[in-house]
Amino acid sequence: xxxxxxxxxxxxxxxxxxxxxxxxxxxxxxxxxxxxxxxxxxxxxxxxxxxxxxxxxxxxxxxxxxxxxxxxxxxxxxxxxxxxxxxxxxxxxxxxxxxxxxxxxxxxxxxxxxxxxxxxxxxxxxxxxxxxxxxxxxxxxxxxxxxxxxxxxxxxxxxxxxxxxxxxxxxxxxxxxxxxxxxxxxxxxxxxxxxxxxxxxxxxxxxxxxxxxxxxxxxxxxxxxxxxxxxxxxxxxxxxxxxxxxxxxxxxxxxxxxxxxxxxxxxxxxxxxxxxxxxxxxxxxxxxxxxxxxxxxxxxxxxxxxxxxxxxxxxxxxxxxxxxxxxxxxxxxxxxxxxxxxxxxxxxxxxxxxxxxxxxxxxxxxxxxxxxxxxxxxxxxxxxxxxxxxxxxxxxxxxxxxxxxxxxxxxxxxxxxxxxxxxxxxxxxxxxxxxxxxxxxxxxxxxxxxxxxxxxxxxxxxxxxxxxxxxxxxxxxxxxxxxxxxxxxxxxxxxxxxxxxxxxxxxxxxxxxxxxxxxxxxxxxxxxxxx
Length: 531
Known about the structure:
With about 525 residues, this protein is mainly β. Helices cover about 0% and strands about 50% of the residues.
């Protein structure tokens, strides 16, 4: 049996239906005050309306803007936000109050306040295009705020070395020279710049205060009041050489609309100028003196002293030569006589520091009284580049040097002879050379000497010993000298020594005869000195 066919049923499509949703719109309940001071806080009432059949429930954010016109745009200035909460019944209107604060940088002029209902998109609304609420035109007034700054104490070097970073502080006195008191949350930035001394504007200013410095809080600063601000300043090592001025600029971002915007830049009076200079050392000999006084005898020992000052801007560390010269014309030339030196001398002086250095001196040898100018000179040797050699010498005064007594010495020592008596009882013969050598005196004369024993004594009848001292000169012009012979014996009878002053004798090949008396076993030592 064949199956029975089932009846066919036709289905009709459902009628499309929109999902129900609330909708937020509104208007300012009352006119915003026609005149509002910048920086002031205002209470605004918006009548929020839900024209739909669904209740508006939940929380939505409301953003407020100040606009130059009646259209919301990206350049509008945010002035606050608020919350829209609770329930608005279908078709109902609810007044909502919000507080906003106009920025202090709003300058006087006209504009409007714009509110965006449900700025965060919390509600799924039936119409998302009607959330903008625009006030009527209002006038923004500008209170009499006027900031001005002056420099106080500046702790920063006026002379800076190129290539060296420096730090310091500057006190800035920030004043409200207007009549209106600032708001509760007012702050402005305070910046310090270095400006080239010949600059006509701020185009080449260099910021020396921290770039990330926080704004200075000046809450409630009354008209006529002042706030002291200490600003850290630092200059890097790469600053070009030249002269600069410190400049402070306050509120350069115009965080506050002021009655006078032209007086926010001030050039420092103290320090009036800052110089960035190339590093250099200048050793200056500022003083020189000797212990000779107004006159001294030739070859007299003395002391010299010089004072060196580092007039440079970096430390001086190294060695120098310090020399003293005696000169008849005040000039260190080929005729100047070196009378003392300290070579080398260690020097370590900070900029501006000074130190005295001592030098051993010996007055020049003269044949006749001579007046000398004593001149000291400093010459760098290692580690120091002196940029000004013109101040490296100094006169230590004048001195009259008189002729020194003559004295004679062989090869730097006194002429000493030793003669020992014979004790074998026999007659002794003379003619034995006991001492000989070369001599020189302090005048530059030279010659030879010898001492010879020419007679002896007999034990049974002690007699005289006779010695002769022969002087010869290599200088024919050197005619006469006084000869002093000092003799001491080892025998007790002669332990006190004997001194004989001889008459003036002629040199050349002449003989000076010296007579000694004594006995066997005596040892006689004598010193001859030409004076």
